[in-house]
Each structure stands twice: as structure tokens, then as C-alpha cells.
Amino acid sequence: MDALKGILPALITPFEEDGRVATTSLERLLARLFDAGVHGTYICGTTGEGLLMSVEQRCRVAEIAVANTPPGHSAIVHVGAASFEDARDLATHAGRIGATAISSLPPAGPGFGFPEARRYYAALAAASPLPLVVYYFPEAYPAIRTLDHLEEICALPNVAGVKFTDFDLSVLSAIAKPGRVVFNGRDEVLAAGLLMGAHGGIGSFYNLVPDQFVDIDALARAGRWSEVRERQDSVNALITAVLRFPLFPAIKQVLTWSGIPCGPCLVPRAGLSVEQQDALRKALAAPQIRAVLPDEWTG
């Protein structure tokens, strides 16, 4: 539990043009993130395209990420899959390679409600000795959509806490109880999530400006809330600009411009068109956005 806190990028997965994991780029990205002070990574989640990968690819990414995680830092492996057997096998693999914890989205699709979500999390938590971080994302996965749902899931044995991706931070505050870890999952409101009791954050934009989010977390821990808000406002200018484009291809494009080739997203996602790349480059050239981008970005 002590290791589950702080700033954890939802790790982007770089690929070669043929779909193979780009090992060198992934290792370089991990080194950059840890050099910036992040406290761990969240591996093969939605941002990392885990649900679009084969089990073998996901195992490979997890192995690289865990092997490149410094001592004292956390590696949470997302193991959610359409098949429970795949999720169980991924959880077993995560334990074997030394991950800190596992996580999973709820089951999605017609016919999956709260009883199915509870049954799924109970079975997954029982299948692995690693602590389980459940995923609250009611906008996209409505099988878990209320505080009562969350409380019941968190009461399951071996459930350590929640990745909370929602803007209703009153629910986050209510779920953040002693002995339970809560990660804020909306990058735009990390500052508010920390104020309301989150122990850290997991986010996509942490790949681009990890130092900014590490500073937000540190300033919040120090109670310097006016500075926290200023730093969050600056980061939100970047988030607003990038969200005008398809999110994951845009993040990969910016990382590629920064010197870490990330390759394409997996099918069915498309890359940015030439026009979109030009528009993104122009948006990122705005002074208030360049002020938060790392020095290595040369777009």
C-alpha cells in the first residue's frame, strides 16, 4: 500500500510500423519519466492500447516496464481483457515479473451490470496475490456508477483502491478512506483530486509533461495551493490544445517530435493526417504551451 501513491503516467506504448513493440523507444520513455521524478507507471491501460494488444504483446510491455522501474517505484499492470482467462493469465504474469499491483477496467458491453462487475472483480482479486486497483469510469463503463457500487467493490478482499476517472470529486472524497488508495484519473483536475483526498494521479498527459504533474503533487503535499492552481492552469492549456485532436495519436506525435519515436497506434485507431499534424504543431507553438513543454520538444 505504501508504494501505491504519487504520479503514475498511464504509459504510452511505442510500436514499430509492423506493430511490434518498439523496445528502445519504450525504454527511453521510461527513463525520461523516471528522470522527471514520477513515482511509477500504469502499464497497458487504455492509453497504452492494452486492450488492442495480444496477450503476448502485453506481457512483453509489462516485462520491459517492470525491468526498467527503479527500486522504490511502483509498476501497476492493467490486466483487463474481454476474456477472464486472459485477465487471470496476465495477472499471474504480472506477479511473476515483480509488478507492484494489478488493475482492470470493469467488464463492458450489453448485459454487463453491477452484479457482473462485482463478480469479475471478486474473481480477479482472488486469482492474484498482488493488490488490485479497480477502475471507476462511469462515463465509459457504467456497470459501476455510484458510491455504493464503489464501496461494495472496495470491500472485496485484496482490493487496494480505485483509479477514479470522473469529475464528481465528492464521490472521490467519500471513497478516500484510511487503508484505501485512490488515484485521480482526470488529468485536468489533478489539483482538485489531491485536495479532495486522492493519494496521487494516473494520467495520459503525464507522458508529455511529467515534471509538471510531479510538481503539482509535491506542491499539494506542501499545502501550497495557490501555486498548485497556477501549475494546473498552465498544464490545462496544453491539455485543451491536444484534446482538439485524436488523443492517443496526438500524444504519440508529440513524443515523436520530442525525440522518442512512438510509431502508429494499433488498428482501428488512425494516425494524424498531415493537416492535423500541422495544426497540432501550430497549437503547441503558443507561448503559454511552450512554457510547460520539456526542453527536448523541438516541434
How would you describe this protein?
The protein has 299 residues and is an alpha/beta fold. Helices cover 44% and strands 12% of the residues. The chain has helices at 23-35, 55-67, 84-97, 114-127, 147-154, 169-175, 190-195, 210-221, 225-242, 247-257, 274-284, 287-290, and strands spanning 6-9, 40-43, 74-78, 101-104, 132-136, 159-164, 181-184, 200-203. The chain has an eight-stranded parallel sheet with strand order 1-8-7-6-5-4-3-2. The N and C termini lie far apart (40 Å). 46% of the residues are buried.
Query: Considering the protein shown, what is the CATH homologous superfamily?
Result: Aldolase class I
* Strand order in the sheet with the most strands: 1-8-7-6-5-4-3-2
Largest sheet: 8 strands, parallel
How many helices in DSSP terms?
A: 12
Q: What is the name of the CATH architecture? A: Alpha-Beta Barrel
What is the CATH class name? Alpha Beta
Approximately how much helix is present in the residues? 40-55%
- Total domains: 1
Overall strand count: 8
The share of residues in extended strands comes to 5-15%
The first-to-last residue Cα distance is: 40 Å
Coarse shape = globular
Summing up helix and strand content along with how strands pair, one would put the structural category as alpha/beta
Give the ordered list of helices and strands.
EHEHEHEHEHEHEHEHHHHH
> What is the CATH topology descriptor?
TIM Barrel
On the 0-100 scale, what is the average pLDDT?
96
